[in-house]
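Severity: low
Component: inverse-folding endpoint
Summary: output formatting inconsistent between runs
Steps to reproduce: submit the following structure tokens with default settings.
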């Protein structure tokens, strides 16, 4: 009798044990299934998300106002060049000329003077021009036969004279050979000039050109 009771108890315990095990197993299977379904619905958080930033709309560039082409200004009329008058040029230097008719000495400073004659370049006469050395006429010593001397008279007329003779005379217009050169210097035939400057206290350099 006791054995039967024990077998019944053991049977009941085993049955309950099996029932509990089966119920626990069912719960685990259901949790695993639900977890698997949940994993399929979740997003992949490890993916690098591309962040698209909205580009700022470029501000329209201000329109550059096109300047109307300025009308060309009428060309100003060129001022007439001042007419040169009363000057002599030789040895690369231009010297103003002044009236020194019959003066005791050549004009001071960078000037030369008409000592005899009216200075006109077309009167077919001789004009004698004097200047200091050292001074305005120092360049006379560079002149030689064939050199050009340019003269602009009081009317603004220009003439180029060519040197044809060079003389050395004393204050009395006598050469070292004793010859009187007055007429040779002051009465040249046709349109001519004669230039004079001192060599020293006694002798003078004379250049004749026409």
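Observed output (run 2 of 3):
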């Amino acid at each position: 009798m006791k054995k039967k009771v024990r077998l019944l108890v053991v049977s009941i315990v085993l049955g309950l044990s099996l029932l509990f095990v089966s119920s626990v197993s069912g719960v685990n299977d259901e949790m695993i299934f639900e977890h698997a379904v949940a994993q399929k619905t979740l997003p992949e958080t490890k993916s690098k998300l591309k962040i698209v930033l909205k580009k700022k709309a470029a501000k329209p560039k201000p329109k550059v106002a096109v300047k109307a082409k300025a009308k060309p200004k009428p060309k100003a009329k060129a001022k007439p060049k001042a007419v040169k008058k009363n000057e002599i040029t030789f040895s690369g230097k231009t010297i103003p000329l002044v009236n020194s008719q019959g003066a005791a000495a050549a004009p001071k400073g960078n000037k030369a003077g008409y000592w005899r004659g009216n200075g006109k370049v077309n009167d077919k006469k001789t004009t004698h021009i004097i200047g200091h050395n050292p001074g305005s006429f120092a360049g006379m010593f560079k002149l030689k036969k064939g050199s050009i001397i340019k003269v602009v008279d009081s009317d603004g007329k220009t003439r180029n004279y060519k040197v044809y003779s060079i003389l050395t005379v004393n204050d009395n217009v006598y050469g070292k050979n004793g010859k009187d050169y007055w007429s040779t210097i002051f009465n040249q035939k046709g349109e001519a000039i004669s230039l004079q400057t001192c060599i020293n206290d006694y002798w003078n350099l004379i250049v004749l050109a026409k």
